[in-house]
Amino acid sequence: MKNQEVAAVFSVMADMLAIQGENYHRIMAYRRAAENIATLGRPLEQAWQAGELESIPGIGKTLAAKIDELMRTGRLGVYEKLQSQVPAGVVDMLEIPDVGPKRAALFWNELGITSVGALEQAAREGSLRALPGMGARSEEKVLAGIEALKRRTGRTRLGVAWPLAHAMLEALGEVPGVVRAAPAGSLRRVRETVGDLDLLVAVEDAEPAGPEAARRVMARFRELPQVAEVLLSGTTKTSIRTHEGLQVDLRVLGSARWGTALQYFTGSQAHNIRLRGLALDQGLSLSEYGLKREDGTEILCASEEEVYAALGLPLIPPELREDRGEIEAALEGHLPELIEMEDLKGDLQFHTTWSDGHQSLLDMAQAARARGLKYALVTDHSHSLGVAQGLAVEDLRRQRAEIEEVNRRMGNTFRLLAGIEVEVLADGSLDFPDHVLAELDLVVAAVHTGLRQDREQVTARMLAAIRNPHVDIIAHPTGRLIGEREGADLDMELVFHAAADTGTVLEVNAHPSRLDLRDAHVRRAIELGVKLAISSDAHDVDGFAVLPMGVATARRGWAIAGDVVNAWSMEDLLGWFVQ
DNA sequence: GCCGTTTTCGGCCCGACTGTTTTCAGTCG
């Protein structure tokens, strides 16, 4: 069984136990296990075979035994028993905003409702308002929630969420009395998709100017053009839904509490729970408003550094805050010195008008240099990728002459390297003969077609490309498009081992629709000794702007500059591939 | 159900907002 399948079983079990009114902490144990399995980065089956299940955080004897049963039989007795007790439609109701386990159980037990459709009908008939704790307003909210559920499009990609958040923050930043405005939540942790947006605004601390400014911020927020519906609005918190159906939560606090607030609203929830536990161990209670001692006195933190320092920890970068070992590493003083955008010295994939790019070699080279890069590898498509007007062998040689001309014009401030994004064909062979590839500085190989091949076939094809002595880098290894298309069904463990053996570099494609390798794969690849390239895949001069998202994805995978070949000097980079 | 240089039992983060309530439960993050 795959990680996602096991995680889904535990997640649904958590929902069912919640509906049955089970102990809250037992439910949380199932949720934590599901989360950790889903983001493990290596096959759970492998950990199972190695007898290492209990080394996974949140997996103890009981859950390890359940995983064992799932792996051996594909079934889980206690899960099937729960399924016979709690109808699937009742679990589905938890997807509705403002319907949690208590209300789902209420609707089911009191009115015999076992589906979202039946719930909608009951709400329309006015039968929910008579239930204990319910009323006409609550009934309306259930209906509105069902409507929102029907419109919902799932998680929003980073490339969409990021500009939206910054547009809203810019407007809020103009309100008089605002001191700071920043994104928090999964956007600040730079997850590849976000479920909602969390925005944080600090106003001046003075009375009554601060509270007045806070009211102005809330009013301005409710009236932003992106807002379709105000879900709730109080003095510190307002939630809205955009026309696209994305929920945006805004919190406003005094700037003296900025550190605890930013820390808290950045999350993740699992990270925060651990942090609050650490605080309690030291006789402190941590909230978004500050640290409280047992005698009730407060410690205010204006910066996140102060929050972590108060708990005896160094600042943990937002990208690591997922409770995947970062707190232990911080306690032991072993936090990695994560790669930073400033470390990048070059780019190892971009396109020009020679194939499907929109600008010339010279324009692209100048744009890359303007972003502080020292070198870039030209990687137009090879000819079999007809949709991208791929290059034929003779085009490649003419392009080489132009590359050399651009290099002469740019002098010693910048260097273009001659490369190609060569197609890996259906049988694992490459689109160009070896002697052509041998003429290039570096060769990037990519699979664009036949991604649906079965696991064995597509993995064999990828391994053939990795083992080809002319191939230096594998572009966007899985080929996934976030929210649109699953990647190829590759055996990533085999891919990583092969890449480590041959020294073949795997790309972290920085485009927000790809981010491929993804964060969990980055971490596993590094563990196995694989080197990475963070590449823009730019098709125009603005395309280099995505590089920070690639860097952030690498950081989420605990990458340091030494793991990333384009954080090295050009000499070191080229030297790596001659070995 | 997990977890432990204060514990193998007894803890397990903390607060805002809403609606239905005369003091709080449910949901959410």
In a few lines, what is going on in this structure?
Helices cover 44% and strands 13% of the residues.
Question: In words, what does this structure look like?
Answer:
- The chain has 579 residues and is an alpha/beta fold.
- It contains 24 helices and 18 strands.
- A five-stranded mixed sheet has the order 2-4-7-6-5, sandwiched between helices. Strands 14-15-16-17-18 form a five-stranded parallel sheet, covered by helices on one side.
- Helix 8 (116-124) packs across helix 9 (136-151).
- The longest helix is centred in the C-terminal third of the chain and has 18 residues, at 393-410.
- It is globular.
- The chain binds one DNA strand of 29 nucleotides through residues 23-30, 32-33, 57-63, 97-103, 132-135, 137-138, 141, 185, 196, 198, 232-237, 239, 249, 251, 264-265, 267, 269, 272-277, 279-281, 285-289.
Instruction: List how many beta strands DSSP finds.
Output: 18
Tally of contiguous helical segments: 24
Query: Level of helix content?
Result: 40-55%
Any idea what the radius of gyration is?
Answer: 26 Å
Weakly predicted, low-confidence segments: none
Largest sheet: 5 strands, mixed
Mean pLDDT: 92
Q: Can you list the strand order of the major beta sheet? A: 2-4-7-6-5
Strand content: 5-15%
Structural class: alpha/beta
